[in-house]
Write the structure tokens for this entry.
Amino acid sequence: MSDKTDKFRLPARYGTGEKSVWVEYIQMVAEIKPKLNLGQGFPDYHPPSYIPDTLADVTKSDNPLLNQYTRGFGHPRLVQNLAKLYSPLIGRQIDPMNEILVTAGAYGSLYSAILGHVEDGDEVIVIEPFFDCYEAMIKCAGGIPKFIPLKPNNVSANMTAADWVLDDKELESLFNDRTKMFILNTPHNPLGKVFTREELEKIANLCKKYNVLCVSDEVYEWMVFEPFKHIRIGTLPGMWERTITIGSAGKTFSVTGWKVGWAYGPAKLMKNLQVVHQNCIYTHCTPVQEAVARSIEFELSRWNTPECYMFAIAKELSAKRDVLNRILKDNGFITTPPDGGYFIIADWTKLGKKLDLSSEPDKYRDYKFTKKFAKEASIVTIPLSAFYSEEHKHFGEDYARFCFIKKDENLVLAETLLQAWQRR
Ligand SMILES: Cc1ncc(COP(=O)(O)O)c(C=O)c1O
């Protein structure tokens, strides 16, 4: 007879229930209290002051309804402003009531898009490295993830994120009649790659040829460094009708704790997302949605000026990228400078005598390295293999991911800590 507690085991759709890298590393931060956390992707400084002020105003507003439930698929003022923001960028009028869904972070939109469209046995193509929840969500929906790794085509000291590319033949070989969805992430986390028009066209042509839905995770859409440009795959010919695009207020306004995200696309695709959302969350936090709506309104009123946050943030971040990139290179890492987003991946394998990892019990070398580095150098980073499927983890094992949306003084602290560690 089976153990009675077996009845309450984790449902198989959640796999073995291992901790995600975020749960594991946040727990590590709480335990070892490092001097510098360059792990998870969030700023350690305040967003422009009008943003939190707006939220404070909203919660104390004379309108009592702003602290109550709002429309389930998105607070009216927010969906209207999202339509105003994106319609000119994608060259078509978005219907705010039927073509946009507001969710609990971009996570919520990914969940609604994947659970709302993937059925048992459907194949979903995912580019590696990938934001780790994609795989768990696909499996939870009964789908089968099919992975294709980006690989560096120019391994040299001057390599950048743009040198990490897909192999065209390998890409086409993954498409077939069972392929339901393609998940794209541009600008890319963790590589910082910004997909070019030519690369997107290849993906778009395959999606059209095999009648595949494209979910485009664009949470870092405003963090693109000159001369790169963010191209929305939904704007390519024939792609609007098969694309769901995902954004995040947390990333856009540097308030990741607000957890407001959205998905937009044609009504017939969005309907499935609405069904998942209405039965799971039903409606997301009203005051935060109102504050995001007002913040978008304000940015639209100063659109295309250097002060507009959607433009200012890219400038601010490209300077921080250069600082951290220089520090890492000067201290023995081989970096891949990004063209977008707020992460740098760095190869740590040339750090010489610092690399006795025998004290660390983990299975993968990058987990061993990042844990030892956190304890000894007091800097937290994220192991890159966390962003690969089980069978491809070896592709990530030489790298750690560093987040650079941090106060300038903390980037300087990274240098001080690295130098102290090197001297030990
Ligand atoms: C690529 C990517 N997608 C989605 C998310 C989740 O965004 P949110 O915090 O809005 O749920 C993140 C957060 O780091 C991310 O990096």
